[in-house]
Amino acid sequence: MRFGKRTILIGAASVAAVLAISIGVYNASRPGSSPTSGLGPGQANAAQGKAKTEQSSTPTAPSVLLEDTQLKSVKIEPVGRHLFTVEREAVGNIDFDEDLPIVQAESALVGAAATLEVASKELVRAKNLYASNVGVSQKELDQAISDQQTAEGALKAAREAVRDLGKTDAEIDRMIASGRIEPEIVSRIVSANVSETDAPLLRVGQAVAVRVMSYPGRVFEGRIYKVYAIVDPGTHRTKIRARIADPRSELRPGMLASVMIRVQQPLEALAIPDTGVVREGDGTMTVWVTADRHQFLQRTVKIGLQKDGWDQIVDGLKPGELAVTEGGVFLSNMLEAPPAD
Fold first, then answer.
1. CA 181, CA 106: separation in Å to the nearest integer?
2. What does the CA dihedral 197, 201, 206, 208 come to, rounded to 10 degrees?
3. In 3D, which of 77, 79, 156 has the Cα closest to residue 115?
4. From CA 167, how far away is CA 105, in angstroms rounded?
5. How far is CA 149 from CA 97, 128, 219, in A?
6. How far apart are CA 258 and CA 288, in angstroms?
7. pTM check: above 0.70
8. d(CA 27, CA 150)
9. Phi then psi for 63, rounded to 5 degrees?
10. Which parts of the chain are beta strand (E)?
11. 245, 234, 249, 255: which is closest to 192 by C-alpha?
12. 38-75, pLDDT tens digit by residue?
């Protein structure tokens, strides 16, 4: 049924071929007449048979001719290019600010800073009393000096430990000055499990877009700051952590999150709106093209990226061709319509 119009075209060609064969046979059978084109009867029949076979095997693209009133059912636009974001999706959850080792290291830093402050004050007091010969022995002074030096060493080691976990000196100084870890970034971390097949694409610094069910339509932007080097053998997934912006402190630890990870720079490619692409019954993808905005030819295409209502066309279309961007299904259904009597 789909190729009814094409069958009519081929039928006309077949009639012409049969007519040519009949004339050739008639000429060959006439006394004294020479075969067509100087060939013997057998050669002429073989040549005509070959021509007939070539004509009948030439593919003809299904086509539809629309009347002016029917053109309102389709939208036609030149094929152009579209910018696609290349992303991978993962399921995760809003987590506490840091891994437990980082929290422990930051707590140790704050504690070491407080200990050093106390030891430094005690040393100053001991020195003053010792200089005044008021109740402080040399042994007590030496102990105060030792305690202060030990506290200095502990603070230095704590700073190095926190720095190795990714904190900057400015962040470290801020924690020491405030006497606490940074509470303003708690609940602004998302952890997600990514398929191991996508693991080679992951990099620290890649942008993420996070959505949670509690705030439909909202997107929380951020960047990956840690990619784990281990793949879970049970789930075949690897873990990432990203820091996301949450200026109104709306996110809570434990919230389910959908995480889109931008794994490479946006790709500009040939594309048309997905409303112009039709999936046929055999699974092939087709579009409709036209040169005069009345006669439409069906074209098989290969689809690549699909994003935000656009389909990348890997093969089958050229830039600038006029294609149907809305109403492709309408044209495909016309092919399936029964022929008029």
1. 6
2. -30
3. 156
4. 11
5. 32, 18, 50
6. 36
7. no
8. 119
9. -140, 160
10. 63-65, 75-78, 80-95, 189-195, 207-212, 220-232, 237-244, 256-273, 278-279, 285-290, 295-307, 310-315, 322-326
11. 255
12. 445 555 454 454 444 444 444 577 888 988 888 988 99
Q: Which residues contact 187 (CB under 8 A, 6 or more apart)?
A: 94, 96, 97, 246, 249, 251, 252, 253
pLDDT tens per residue, range 162-193: 888 778 888 899 889 888 776 544 447 899 99
In the chain, which residues have pLDDT < 50?
1-39, 44, 46-47, 49-58, 184-187
Task: Dig out the tokens for 127 from the structure.
Answer: 């020195």
Phi, psi of 171 (to 5 degrees): -65, -40
Contacts of 10 (CB under 8 A, 6+ apart): 55, 56, 60
Structure tokens of 16?
């012409």
What does the DSSP assignment read for 115-139? HHHHHHHHHHHHHHHHHTTSS--HH
HSE, CB side, 13 Å, CA atoms: give it for residue 116: 20
DSSP 194-236: EEGGGGGG--TT-EEEEEETTSTT--EEEEEEEEEEEEETTTT
Q: List Cβ neighbours of 268 (8 Å cut-off, separation of 6 or more).
A: 81, 82, 83, 84
The residues pairing with 93 across neighbouring beta strands, listed in sequence order, are 191, 256
Tell me which residue has tokens 């092919």.
335
